[in-house]
From TrEMBL:
The keyword Electron transport does not apply. Belongs to the RPF2 family. PANTHER family: BRIX DOMAIN CONTAINING PROTEIN, RIBOSOME PRODUCTION FACTOR 2 HOMOLOG. GO terms for biological process: maturation of LSU-rRNA from tricistronic rRNA transcript (SSU-rRNA, 5.8S rRNA, LSU-rRNA); ribosomal large subunit assembly. One of its GO terms (cellular component) is nucleolus. SMART domains: Brix (SM00879). Residues 282-328 are annotated as: Disordered. It is found in: Nucleus, Nucleolus. This is Ribosome production factor 2 homolog. The keyword Heme does not apply. It comes from Lentinula edodes. It holds the Pfam family Brix.
């Protein structure tokens, strides 16, 4: 029970792979390869289950699916589910379910196309348990709400354990996620009727070669699996539950200075990692500002003189006479 309590730095998410009532050869291979990338934080249910998490909540199958997910999550201390099921209406359907505090947070459903298994790709494979380097190649992953949710879901699935530093040779594989050409009519702010572009997922192994410097030359070799995802249905997270899930504990001063967590008031960490502060001062009275004492700045120094007055002509005559004395 103590191990399952909330922590300042959470452990890696445990994902449960569940087969629906009907799965084909494609889905079986996809779930097998995704488990290989997720190991050792993966659990497989060999038996088929009647589960439909995206059905309406008022139906018997929808309510039973939610209760089953909550029960499995509590029993196995798992926070993610990958459900595979195929039907005539939705062939090769893959459903990602994310949990928080034993409750369903959000769901993303996608169809699998152009699948290439890991076994069919020759070459070496990555070691289980290593963190992947994830690459998202599209601006829609930062602007469109559907792809923002998908990016967050994939990172939660494959991110693994939180580490402070990474050994270069420990990056054995790369998961690249890119999009097909984006339609010009795609609206990035609200729901649009324009079909969303396909999501291309490719996996590569890394090779570190000599480059003549301290930084090696990196080559990517296809490892598998590779697949295309077509986004289908989804559910948005509950605002209150999402607020609780995004809450972070109070961090130490050293952590804030490193740029971690919520920043303190009037303190900011720039791109170079330097801590910069902002100082607020009260309103200043510039009339009392101490300046250099000069006769020309004194009040009333030019009040007696004028452009057409006698004082002005007298001063000019005095200056002319002084020049004549110097010349003589």
């Amino acid at each position: 029970m103590e191990a399952r309590q909330p922590k300042e730095v959470e452990d890696a998410r445990i994902a449960i792979f569940v087969k629906g009532t009907k799965t084909g050869e494609v889905l079986n291979g996809v779930m097998k390869d995704m488990m290989a990338l997720k190991r050792p934080d993966a659990i497989s249910f060999s038996k088929k289950n009647v589960i439909h998490p995206l059905d309406a909540q008022n139906t018997a199958s929808g309510s039973s699916s939610m209760s089953s997910l909550e029960f499995w999550s509590s029993k196995n201390d798992a926070s993610m589910f990958v459900i595979g099921q195929t039907s005539k209406k939705r062939p090769n359907d893959l459903t990602f379910v994310r949990m928080f505090d034993g409750k369903v947070l959000d769901i993303v459903e996608a169809g699998v196309e152009n699948y290439v298994s890991m076994e069919s790709v020759p070459g070496s494979k990555s070691t289980p348990g290593h963190k992947p380097l994830m690459h998202f190649a599209s601006e829609l992953f930062d602007t469109h709400p559907r792809f923002i949710q998908l990016k967050s879901m994939l990172m939660s699935l494959f991110n693994g354990e939180v580490v402070e530093s990474i050994y270069l040779k420990g990056l054995e594989h790369v998961i690249s996620v890119s999009l097909a050409p984006t339609p010009a009519t795609l609206n990035t702010t609200t729901e649009s009727t324009t079909p969303l572009p396909k999501v291309h997922i490719r996996t590569y192994t890394t090779r570190l070669l000599a480059s003549g410097s301290r930084i090696p030359r990196v080559e990517l070799t296809p490892m598998g699996p590779s697949m295309d995802l077509v986004l289908r249905r989804h559910t948005n997270p509950d605002p209150e539950l999402l607020k609780q899930a995004m809450r972070r504990p109070k961090l130490k001063k050293t952590d804030v200075e490193k740029g971690l967590g919520k920043k303190r008031k009037n303190l900011d960490v720039d791109e170079m990692g330097d801590l910069r502060g902002r100082v607020h001062v009260g309103k200043q009275d510039l009339s009392r500002l101490q300046t250099r004492k000069m006769k020309g700045l004194k009040a009333g120094a030019f009040e007696d003189g004028g452009d057409d007055g006698a004082g002005g002509s007298g001063s000019d005559d005095g200056e002319v006479s002084q020049k004549k004395r110097k010349l003589s």
